[in-house]
Amino acid sequence: MTDSAHPVNGLDDVVHQRVRLGILTIAHEARKVEFGYLRDHLELTAGNLSKHVDVLETAGLVEVEKGYEGRRGRTWISLTDSGRAALTAEIGRLKQLIARVETNGAGGG
Amino acid sequence: MTSNSLPADADPRQLLADTRGLARQVRHDQRLTWVALLVLAGLTLVAIPIDWFTMKVDCLPPISLPKGQMMECTFDRRAYLWFWPPALLLAYAAIAYFYLRAARARGIGARVRPYVVTGAVLTGLFLAAGIAIRVYLATHDAPEGPLPGWFLLLDRTLAPWGIMGLALLVLARIERNVALLAFTVGYLIVALVPVNFGWAYHSPDPRLEFLPQQVINGIVLLLGSIGFFLAGRRRAASAPLDEQPVR
């Protein structure tokens, strides 16, 4: 098998990063997610999370909507179609990687 | 949590397990199962006097019947037409409102639309079936003798408590809520296979044939609501111990 066929070569650097993969996963399950929920569940600082959200927004994988509830500002993040496709592809490649590792492990005895 | 890119030798199993754990956490945070069951239980129990007093019952003159013989009565649950359809729609609207409000307060979206749409569609079917049977009986004689079992099962399935259960199956599916699925299967068995300890045959009033089942359905829904509420509280109390963040 050539290197290009290896699942690792298909991994998207933007998505294949723990925090950003976590953001995409939560946004996918939640339909839309508030910044504070992401910060609490991923245990990040606001600044750190902002950087990752910016990367995903620049890549067109998430949409960011800012608004107010009363006097409190809230930022909602939702997946774009591209983000949904990227997440699905990433999960698929992870499963391929696991299958490959298990196959090699079994073959190596 | 580290913000570094995944190292080349990172375990993809761990990464996949982390994403699944996050997804599971979000699904738990979206649930408000106890509220849905409480609204349905409340509706069922509140409707008891309405069903009782609006049911039209016509029996043969109450002559003394030989022991074990049933009176011949016709009945019309009129609340099925004018009370239950709007009440069910209001109940689903209330459930949707509580789900959306709770999810928004937690900072996430809600997954309740397919449940509400299913509930509304089934309510429409229930109303259509009620109208159809009245139109049929307006031009045909009521069938004599006991009705076939499949008809009674269909009748119970398209009754308010049957369609509540069918819609709950959809809620269990969209929430991937195994506990709710198990509860709903048990509830449907209770609602569709009528519990009868003889009150249908020995009661002086035919309305008593329906009352116990409605009380049982309401109590089952209420107990389910209490159970899910307590389970949710227990889970929330133990969350810091058994739910580790992604690292």
From TrEMBL, chain A:
It holds the Pfam family HTH_34. Residues 19-98 form the Winged helix DNA-binding domain. InterPro entries: WH-like_DNA-bd_sf, WH_DNA-bd_dom, WH_DNA-bd_sf. Coiled coil: none annotated. This is Transcriptional regulator. It comes from Paractinoplanes bogorensis.
From TrEMBL, chain B:
The chain crosses the membrane at residues 32-50, 79-100, 112-137, 149-171, 178-199, 211-231. It comes from the Bacteria. Keywords: Membrane, Transmembrane, Transmembrane helix. This is Uncharacterized protein. It comes from Paractinoplanes bogorensis.
